[in-house]
Specification:
This protein is mainly alpha-helical. It has a single domain, classed as Protein Binding, DinI Protein, Chain A.
């Protein structure tokens, strides 16, 4: 009985070792793909354009509010106390609305960034899947989760090339 158990155990150990040798593990720098791929650069450029348009609009609104403030300060002695307080409360309401618009625009850009990044990652998944099948890869890890690894098992450059060929643009909105 012990001989049969020993034979079964040795057979299992041999098969397990053989299977582990066939299991190929590689890693990928996803952040680099997001930054350096054509689609990633496209996302970044589109978001920067939206940000710059918002910034320009907010600069104009800020200048307009400063003009209104200076005008109100200049009219302080001319206006009655009641009219001055009314104008001041209107100006404060405008400033509060302006600040809310800024926060809303910033949140919108963050949402667009997250959405676009998710789209790129979802388009990247089939590429990784196909690459893993072709190259008999059992596991692909993110580089940021690895303390140390051989440079030979990094596949970032290969995936970057494939991504640039297959994904040229990600739509925002």
């Amino acid at each position: 009985m012990y001989k049969k158990l020993l034979i079964i155990l040795l057979t299992l150990i041999c098969f397990t070792t053989t299977y582990a040798e066939d299991f190929k593990i590689v890693y990928l720098n996803v952040d680099r793909i997001m930054q350096e791929s054509i689609a990633g650069k496209s996302i970044k450029k589109k978001l920067e354009n939206i940000y710059n348009k918002d910034l320009e609009r907010f600069k104009k609104n800020d200048a307009n509010l400063k003009k209104k403030e200076k005008k109100l300060i200049a009219q302080k002695n001319i206006l009655s106390d009641q009219d001055f307080k009314k104008e001041l409360s209107n100006l404060r309401a405008e400033i509060i609305n302006f600040q809310k618009e800024q926060v809303k625009a910033r949140d919108n850009i963050n949402k667009l960034r997250i959405k676009a990044t998710s789209k790129l990652i979802s388009k990247l998944s089939p590429i990784l899947e196909e690459y893993a099948k072709k190259n008999s890869i059992g596991l692909i890890l993110q580089k940021k989760n690895i303390v140390m690894g051989k440079k030979e098992i990094e596949i970032t450059n290969q995936i970057l090339e494939i991504t640039n060929k297959e994904i040229s643009d990600i739509k925002i909105n």
